[in-house]
Amino acid sequence: DCEPLEIRRGLPGDPDDSHSRYLEAAVQGVIVACLYLPNGNPQPGPKFDYKLAWFERFIEHAAGLLASGHPVVLAGDYN
């Protein structure tokens, strides 16, 4: 059976972040994540600060996924 199993919707690390920018699923033993990194324009400003904070959360989460030993695909729009 190759039906994806949703693991996570939303990037961990900020419970107040209500933007749907991250989805993670397991497909035949592979963890597949799809993301939409915030644009961050204009720079400097709050949108750019949000982008940097979001990316730091993503890096931390991705490190944990990669350390899990499972194959991982991190795909999407990295802006």
Automatic annotation (TrEMBL):
One of its GO terms (biological process) is DNA repair. GO terms for molecular function: double-stranded DNA 3'-5' DNA exonuclease activity. SUPFAM superfamilies: DNase I-like (SSF56219). Gene3D superfamilies: Endonuclease/exonuclease/phosphatase. PANTHER family: EXODEOXYRIBONUCLEASE III. This is Exodeoxyribonuclease III. It comes from Stutzerimonas stutzeri.
